[in-house]
Design goal:
The chain contains 22 helices and 20 strands. It is of the alpha+beta class. The protein has a six-stranded antiparallel beta sheet. Helix 11 (388-396) links the parallel strand 14 and strand 15 (398-399). The longest helix is centred in the C-terminal third of the chain and has 29 residues, at 538-566.
Length: 648
């Protein structure tokens, strides 16, 4: 009776593959619905539990699950195309692929799909931390591939060592390909939308709108000056110009006159703006030259062609003064006040106008009013109620920069001087490691502009009430306001070290944004121009990349093979033994194992039977058996092995 052949045992992917899937999917939880990762985890758990507790699903059940996943994605996103639907579909299919995996080939496909999920992580968050995570992920994936190809015989330490060597060999080649290979239009990292809202500025100014950003250390933008760096109290980055008010909220109005910029000095600088979700581009007073395609509008406000949903790099040239003309409609707009304005404000400004009508003198009287009545600059302004200007001027007399800017503009308009409020950023911190200015959310600021002799003149009431807010670095001035006279400006060594490490991290982030996130065709051409390659087209760059890749792979293979031979003393001793056997006419054939070669050599030379047997046994034990103590005997036997050409 013929026996039936045994059914082959199903291959179960190593648990390291499941860990790799979890690593690839966890960062996507911040961007995808939670149930996509949950379903992938359910399918993966089903696969590892089916060998013991549940049965394998039939083929038609798998097809039903694929249809269910497809309908689920379509019902949630109303499409199957795009970044979010595509990655959600991929994550759940990754779990389904794990559920049906029964062979080493399926396990390798799982690792390759994890690479695609990792690319999705990088598209959503191409940060430096994610780059380090990707390197660690690739190292772990090489360990997983090694475990799939050779489940037994290698320790985890040796697998990690092999993966590290592979990564060290691959990083230079990958960096070369990334730098030289022709760039796609728009850049790879710009294809997916980035998280928006890192800049907390809004076009509406109301009590508490800027003081709410004091706790946010998020980087709004980084500024690199191409020349002398303006002092901190001169770095006013305008974002919104507000002209319409109802007594409580200031909003942008309809500005018509653009004007022209002139006067020294002219400052050229580059801004790296983080995603905002709107079109406004903060610029230094007053913009003269903006990037092609962007619009320089009235009030010195620059707008991009599209909403900023990824890291944006733009270069601007700014001048010292802006001249123009104020139309009758514009004067009426910049003097308008709500009908519910408190009469005490008009009586106050009427007393000022009895002595002077010059705009600058009236501005001086308004600022002197803040000083004379002991107004206080506070980080926690009280609630202003329904009439914030009245309560601020006559009752509370304490507030943040938005309260002073709104009150000063109201006083100037009541005095007959056209005025408006500007919202943007002030100062920023110079980073000596990166050479750039770091502007954070807590640097948000509001100031005023009044019309004086054909141009808008900046007036900042905060400079009168709290001059330290303009001249000192904001965190230090904030500690002074919080601690009062007990603050002496000193910090502990831990605070100084933490601040220094933060500056270094910001400098590294700037370089990462410059050469990885924002590395487009223009920056590639600039880099190649520095290297002397001025007219390298896409075809030439592709061929150069291919040639360099082949050369690098050949070099790595040669050096790697030489290193392995040089650091394997057992193989080196055995090759010396084989060369001595070749001298007596017994050459080892290509592909012939040490055992087969020993059997053939003993038959040809019975007089060398003992020496051949011992050397072969020591080499096999040392090389394949993991017995390191046999190496010494192997070296000694080979050193004493001096065979004659003919037996005696």
């Amino acid at each position: 009776m013929t026996a039936r052949p045994a059914k082959p045992t199903a291959f179960t992917p190593p648990l390291l593959v499941a860990g790799l899937m979890a690593l690839a999917c966890l960062p996507l939880l911040a961007h995808l619905p939670w149930w996509t990762v949950a379903m992938a985890a359910f399918f993966t758990g089903w696969r590892y539990a089916r060998d013991r507790y549940v049965a394998a699903p039939p083929r038609f059940v798998l097809w039903l699950l694929v249809a269910f996943v497809t309908l689920l994605v379509y019902a949630h996103f109303h499409t199957l195309f795009g970044e979010h639907p595509g990655l959600s579909f991929l994550v759940m299919l990754l779990g389904l692929k794990c559920l049906e995996s029964d062979s080493p080939r399926d396990a390798v496909v799982l690792v390759l799909l994890c690479y695609v999920a990792l690319l999705g992580d990088l598209l959503f968050q191409p940060s430096m931390a994610m780059g380090v995570f990707a390197l660690l992920f690739l190292t772990v994936s090489f360990v997983a591939l090694s475990a799939i190809a050779q489940p037994q015989g290698l320790s985890l330490r040796r697998r990690l060592r092999q993966s590290g060597v592979i990564m060290l060999q691959a990083i230079p080649l990958a960096a070369l390909a990334y730098v030289v290979f022709p760039r796609i239009a728009g850049g790879l990292w710009h294809s997916a939308p980035r998280p928006i809202g890192q800049i907390g500025l809004t076009p509406d100014l109301r009590p508490g709108s800027l003081s709410a950003l004091l706790a946010s250390r998020a980087v709004a933008m980084r500024v690199i000056f191409h020349g002398p760096r303006p002092p901190r109290d001169k770095r006013y980055f305008r974002a919104y110009v507000l002209t319409a008010t109802n007594g409580r909220v200031w909003r942008p109005g309809r500005l018509r006159t653009v004007g022209h910029t002139q006067g020294d000095p002219f400052v050229s600088y580059t801004v790296l703006l983080n995603p905002t979700g709107n079109r406004v581009l903060p610029v230094l007073d007053w913009p003269l030259k903006v990037p092609a395609g962007d619009m320089l509008g009235p009030g010195g406000v620059v707008r991009a062609r599209h909403a900023v949903r990824h890291l944006l790099r733009y270069r601007v040239t700014s001048g010292a003064r802006r001249y123009g003309r104020l139309t009758t409609a514009g004067r009426r707009r910049d003097l308008s006040l709500p009908a519910t304005l408190d009469p005490r404000i008009r009586r106050l400004t009427a007393r000022w106008r009895q002595t002077t009508s010059a705009p600058q003198a009236l501005a001086h009287d308004a600022l002197a009013y803040f000083v004379r009545h002991h107004f206080v600059y506070t980080l926690n302004p009280p609630t202003m109620g329904r009439h914030p200007i009245t309560r601020f001027l006559f009752h509370v007399r304490a507030g943040y920069c938005e309260d002073y800017a709104a009150a000063f503009a109201t006083l100037m308009r009541a005095s007959g001087v056209p005025a408006r409020v500007v919202v943007g950023f002030l100062g920023g911190e110079f980073n000596p490691d990166g050479g750039d200015i770091i502007v954070r959310n807590y640097d948000a600021h509001a100031w005023d502009e009044i019309w004086v002799r054909g141009r808008w003149v900046r007036v900042d009431p905060t400079a009168v009430v709290a001059p330290g807010a303009l001249t000192e670095r904001w965190p230090a001035f904030r500690r002074f306001l919080e601690h009062g006279a007990t603050f002496r400006g000193s910090r502990s060594w831990w605070d100084r070290l933490h601040h220094r490490l933060g500056l270094w991290r910001d400098a590294a982030t700037t370089e990462w944004d410059n050469w990885v996130v924002d590395y487009n065709g223009r920056r590639q051409a600039e880099l190649l121009r520095r290297l002397g390659l001025r007219d390298a087209g896409p075809v030439a760059l592709g061929l150069a990349t291919l040639i360099l890749a082949v050369g690098a792979l050949s070099l790595v293979r040669a050096l790697g093979g030489r290193a392995r031979r040089a650091h394997d003393p057992a193989r080196r001793a055995y090759e010396r033994y084989c060369r001595r056997m070749e001298r007596i006419g017994l050459a080892r054939a290509a592909g012939e194992g040490p055992y087969d070669f020993g059997v053939r050599a003993r038959r040809a030379r019975p007089d060398l039977d003992t020496a051949i047997t011992v050397i072969t046994h020591c080499y096999i034990e040392c090389r394949y058996g993991g017995r390191g103590e046999a190496l010494g005997e192997l070296k000694a036997r080979v050193a004493r092995f001096r065979p004659r050409s003919r037996p005696r």
